[in-house]
Amino acid sequence: MERTENRNHERRKKGGLVTMPFIFANEACEKLAVVGFNANMISYLTGQLHLPLTEAANTLTNFGGTASLTPLLGAFVSDSFAGKFWTISLASIFYQLGFILLTVSAILPQLRPPPCTGEEPCQEANGGQLAILYVSLILSAIGSGGIRPCVVAFGAEQFDESDPKQSTKTWTYFNWYYFVMGAAILVAVTLLIYIQDNVGWGLGLGIPTVAMLISIITFMAGYPLYRHLDPSGSPFTRLVQVGVAAFRKRKMNVADSKLLYQNDELDAPISLGGKLIHTEQMKFLDKAAIVTEEDNVKSPDPWRLNTVHRVEELKSLIRMGPIWASGIILITAYAQQGTFSLQQAKTMNRHLSHSFQIPAGSMSVFTILSMLSTTAFYDRIFIPIARRFTGLDRGISFLHRMGIGFVISTFATLVAGFVEMKRKNAAFSHGLADHSQATIPISVFWLLPQYCLHGVAEAFMSIGHMEFFYDQSPESMRSTAMALFWAVVSVGNYVSTLLVTLIHKFTRRPDGSNWLPDNNLNKGKLEYFYWLITILQLINLVFYLWCAKRYTYKPIQVHSKSDSSSSDEKEEREEVELASKV
């Protein structure tokens, strides 16, 4: 026991603010690479590989969905046996290979279809050329699987929650983590997209490839300084064990919750920051902690008997489920910025001068700027003011923060529909409706409201969602919690693909037109698509408000040390953090 305390003491010497430059530098380079790789891909797929618009849009959302689903696998590897540091390192290498392959395909002409001449229809990429694209995307998705669920949780773990001096830094870390990430994205959607559109795709993709290499080197250089927490075994196995044990004892009744099985020594590796205490919800699962004559309490079979802490781990994840699901439609709405909103921008006047025009893919810079400014305002101004009224260190709860983001996002999609109406009216009034490549004499800055509102919504919703998953998940499942955050992005992208496919199919008319045409947005009804998503968001908002009102925060018993009147004497104290203190 003394050896364990000494080991924990050694761990606490590491970590803290000194590790942040390495983690933030890694995140900045990695995001520069990833966004430089993804932000303008719709232009690469349609302009270089000559894919139809809907096929290109679905390829991107499918890739986005897959890249956000693989974190579940990465979380399993990290929490089970590899640990966060090595999972991130190995995943980064896969990402690097994906970047290299795509960059090579952009440099070598034989790996792309020939340029369009204007005399004949453009030749689409053949099977071999598409295979190279898909392999590079798969490698990148595998890389995402290891990086996304681990890097945020790894950074947060550098602060010891049992240390009062560091416990309040965790939620500030989330704000500034997202700020650094946004700053890197800002560079990607301006400089890199300009290079891709005006210099060449070889250099435009080569820079992100080099950035990813720098990211790997920077992250590994901080190894001696990091606070490394040992993996505590497969969390998924523990969850299944609780379910199986509860089912096996389904005919038994819980006479007294105080008699349910507790074993601090058994739970020690998975409850370093505090032990979960019993809650009254989902009482069926409590049956897994009923002690019978057949059970060996000193060395229990986890398929028959589990501690209250392990039962509450499963309860916590189940309680998080509805809040998790409420984020899907928001991601579906947000996904349109990289597809149809970008295509809107391509048809509009993007000139800032006679010789310079904004690349369509760089319009997302306004989303990033609004997200960055909102995040800084929230952290520096809003929180201190809100704290005076609420008494909460974080100003408002993450559930309130998420709710604000939902409202703003719904309004952003509604506005996008009206802007599309104005864009099409300008096309018809100038006789350009039949010319898909013609520039409509209407400023691209009409798209600013939808881009900026989505940025403000992200500052509230996405950061709040991330905080929620990290804070409310069991301590031993922090990587899994971040994987759930990215799983929302995955499902949201797949829902976007499904919506686009269904609308493209069922709105088709005998003349071939539909709401989302492949070649000419002027002939479609994109505004109807935006308003359909708006209606879905309104329904989702009602669902979220209902879930948030009924949500029960996890109660946790925190063990910390406090000084007594004598500096040589220490005493243990226990305090229960209730939901009202979150």
From TrEMBL:
It is found in: Membrane. It comes from Acacia crassicarpa (northern wattle). It is a multi-pass membrane protein. InterPro entries: MFS_trans_sf, POT_fam. Residues 559-582 are annotated as: Disordered. The chain crosses the membrane at residues 93-111, 131-155, 176-195, 201-226, 317-336, 356-378, 398-419, 439-460, 481-503, 528-547. Keywords: Membrane, Transmembrane, Transmembrane helix. GO terms for molecular function: transmembrane transporter activity. Signal peptide: none annotated. GO terms for cellular component: membrane. Its main location: membrane. This is Uncharacterized protein. Belongs to the major facilitator superfamily. Proton-dependent oligopeptide transporter (POT/PTR) (TC 2.A.17) family. SUPFAM superfamilies: MFS general substrate transporter.
